[in-house]
Structure formats: structure tokens, C-alpha cells
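Thread: Modeling a multi-component assembly for a lab meeting

Hi all, long-time lurker, first post. My supervisor asked me to bring a structural picture of a complex we are working on to next week's group meeting, and I have zero experience with this. I have the sequence lines for every component (495 residues in total). Could someone generate the structure of the whole assembly? Inputs are pasted exactly as I received them:
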Amino acid sequence: MPELSIDGQPFRFAQGTTVAAALMSSGDRCSRTSVSGQRRAPLCGMGICQECRVNIDGLRRLACQTICREGMQVQTRS
Amino acid sequence: MTQHVDLLIIGAGPAGMAAALAAAPSAISIAIIDDNPLPGGQIWRDGPQARLSASARQMRARLQRHGNIQLHSASKVVAFAGTKRLLLENAEEGWVLAYDKLIVCTGARELLLPFPGWSLPGVTGAGALQALIKGGLPVAGERIVIAGSGPLLLAAAATAKKNGAEVVRIAEQASLGDVARFGAGLWRWPNKMIQALDLASGVYRTSAHVLAASGVDRLEAVRVQLGDRVHEIACDRLACGFGLVPNVEIATALGCRIEHRAIFVDQWQASSVADHYAAGECSGFGGSELALVEGRIAGLAALGQRAQARKLWPERKHWQNFADRLNRAFALNPALKKLAKPDTLVCRCEDVPYAELANHSSWTAAKLNTRCGMGACQGRICATAGQTLLGWEPPQLRPPFSPARIATLACLDEDVA
Ligand SMILES: Cc1cc2nc3c(=O)[nH]c(=O)nc-3n(C[C@H](O)[C@H](O)[C@H](O)COP(=O)(O)OP(=O)(O)OC[C@H]3O[C@@H](n4cnc5c(N)ncnc54)[C@H](O)[C@@H]3O)c2cc1C
Ligand code: FES
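Re: Modeling a multi-component assembly
Sure thing. I ran the full set together rather than chain by chain. Output:
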């Protein structure tokens, strides 16, 4: 199974999995920290709410509209 | 880099795909841009836990076969770059696309309303949970409460069950009478909805709505109003959506008239702006069949093939009647406007609670004083909630329509130079 990294932790995924689904099934299952310090997880699943915005290989991306790729580095705390 | 096409379509859901396929035989140049990784819109998603229907696969294959259709997936509209020119961005680059005719097929999003605990991890929209499961989210063995309104609750429940979750309650806010009247017309709804209703029946409750979600770091329980009683239900997930809201932001910014929260169109699917058309859920909720036929009419009308477009009017009327029925059945109970408590966050981007908003008289005043709607979602969640809860007119979106890279914005200068 291919693998990517979420906050430094390896995560194995089935081909076609979205990064949002990966985030919600690993670590603290969250995607970002809000301005008042709450951890948040994907909400709308369709590119509207921006709760799933993460850093992927240095670029800000929406996890729910991104498909997992081998070797991706995903950061939820940057 | 600037490209030119005869016809640009924004959105590759059923409406956008049908519009492109209807226009393609004319051999004009067509581009479709869509922010998802694959075409199909909200309904046709494949992934590790979903298989596309045969008809959806066929439409995708037909799109690929037409050499005059370029599909730009994972691409979004960033800004206008002058008349009939849009600045676009994908993961690699930004570019300007000029067009003669435009069809807006931006679909709809779920109406998400604030209630205590809705920002806890474990709470999602209803269609959202369906999309996330199709995208590979494992839910086997989880206890799931589904709440809100409309047939999407049943679709979400069916997907969750199919993937091994235990759906412990479906709370539909509409009354039994309204749902039953709608059910009488259900023979027209796709088969899978009928199956969904079947499977849901044991846990399905009408006149029922969520009151609050609770938990320490993530969702542990949901309080639900069931008729005149309150139930506390332990669960792993709450999927809550109150129906659909058309995505009209780009059309509004283009100057198209909006009526009843949707893009106004005439019988040719033409908007109030010349050469700009709209089809599918962005011009009013109606399900995928209506989106398909509207897309075909828009594609033909944009080419001036009015006789062919007119032949499709009866089919559109058939599905429009169904949509009207649906919208009447699932009209929102005013009690839902009172779910947010003073400390409930309404704006999740800037963490602004309800009490701070309710002090103001309009969206603009609230925005200037509290920063609500100034975060990354640009008010798509909170301004839509404010419109429903407080009756405030949502603001017109200003470019950039979505967060963009500096290098993309620099294309605007190049383009002018
Ligand atoms: C979450 C969700 C789940 C649903 N599930 C079902 C279901 O199971 N069964 C059912 O019958 N109906 C379902 N519906 C209703 C569904 O919307 C319609 O049946 C049908 O998909 C409408 O087609 P459409 O082409 O009008 O819009 P959509 O399918 O919504 O397609 C619009 C497309 O445009 C893209 N887009 C929007 N704005 C932009 C932009 N600015 N730039 C680039 N791309 C953009 C969107 O990402 C999307 O891919 C669902 C709706 C939602 C919101
Ligand atoms: S979950 Fe809302 S934008 Fe991705």
C-alpha cells in the first residue's frame, strides 16, 4: 500500500483516498487549529468551508479536494 | 499565459458535463473548469469506497472522446481579468482564459446551521459525510446520527450503512405530513432513494432536530428534539445538513440577477447578462435529472440551436415539478433559527460567536465590527447561516474568489501588459 506522512507520522492509504479522509482516520483526526486554538476537522467535504485546509508539500491545499499520493508531506499544524 | 475558447463552462457536475456534451458536436472550442480532482460534481464521486453508475462513467468517457473539450479539473476561478476573461489557478500554475459564452454550472452546497457543539471534530454536513466516505473515510462499527432535512439525509444514511456504520437515528426536521406528501411522489426519484427510505425506516423520525453536540475533544453525544421529547444519543459522528443552497457567488459577481437565492434564468437557461447562461442547482435545487436536462438546454441555446433546445422543455418541466414538490415538503421549521446559543461560534474561520453578531443590524455592520466572514471561506458558511438565521442579505464576494497564490495574481499584470 502506498504511504504518505501526516505531521511526520506515516499513513498508508488505498488508491483514490482523499487527504481529508486520511486525516480523519489518523492522529487526532483533525485538519487545522482555529484562531482561538480549537482543533477542527473537515466539515463540508466539498471545498466550501475551508476547515480542511492543510499544508501539502509546502502549498496550502484543501484536503477534501486533494487525492492522496505516495510520499506527500501533509502538515495540519502549520 | 492567455487562452481563448468559444464556450467556457464552470463546474463539471451533471449540468456542466451535459452542457459540454450537447455543445460538442458543433466543433466549437469548449473548456470546463472544476475544482474537484475528477469530473462528476457532488453526486458522481468515485473513490476507494464508491463506484460510479454506468451512466456517469459513460458521460465521463464521452467527455474524453471529444477533442474539442478541454477539461481542467482541480482548477478554480480566482478573479476576473477584464470582460469575458477569468483568472484561473490549479496546483501548478495560474492562467487567464478568455471566452465568448459562459455557462455557470457551479451547483449547490449544503446549508449548515450553527448549533452548540457544531465545531467539534466528529460533526460534518450530511452530504459531506457521504462524500468523505466515498473518498475513503472508514466508518465501520461507528454509531452515526444523521440530522437536518431533505432526501440527502437518506442518501448519506445509505452510504454509511453500506460501509458498515450503525445509523442510530435520522432526525428530519420536516413534519410527517409533509414528508408523506413528498413520499407520494417518490416514484419519480431515483431508485436508490426508495431503497434508502426502506432501509432507514426503523430509525427515521420526522419533526425531529438536533439541539446540541457535546464531547471533550471530539463528539461523544448528540441531544435531539423528537417531537416534544429530548433524547441524548451517544455516538461517534453527527452528520447534519439542512438542505441545499445554490452556489451563486461567481454569477453574482458577474452581474447576474439572483432570485430566491438562485441564479435567475429564462427558458433558454440564459441569465440576465448577455452570453452568460446557468444550469443545474446553481439556478435552483432540483436533483441530477433536472441538472442534466438544464445543462443540455444551456449548451444548445448557447450555440443558438434553439429548435433543439426547445424540444427538451417538456422534460425540464417534468423534473421542475418534482423539484417544486421537494422544496415545499422540506421547508425549514423556524425553531431551527434558535439553535445557536450566545456563545455558539457562527463564523468558524474567525471564531465569532452568535452574541457578537446578533448585536448588529446587518451583515456589513457585523463584518466590520467582528471580522465574521473575513476568513478563508469568505462567508460561504457564516453569511449563508446569517441569511437564514437573521435574514441578512449576504455580501457580494470580491475577488480573489478563493485563496490564491501571489504568482497567480501576477498573471493579471502580465495579461494587461
Ligand atoms: C454534498 C452533496 C451530496 C449530494 N448527494 C446526492 C445524491 O447522493 N443523490 C442525488 O440525487 N443528489 C445529490 N446531491 C444533489 C446534487 O447536487 C445534484 O443531484 C446534482 O449533483 C447537481 O448537479 P449540478 O451539476 O447542478 O451541480 P454539482 O454536482 O454540485 O456540480 C458543480 C461542480 O462545480 C464545481 N464548482 C463550483 N464552484 C466552482 C468554482 N468557482 N470553480 C470551479 N469549480 C466549481 C463543484 O465543485 C462541482 O464539482 C448532493 C448534493 C450535495 C451538495
Ligand atoms: S471540508 Fe470543507 S473545504 Fe474541505
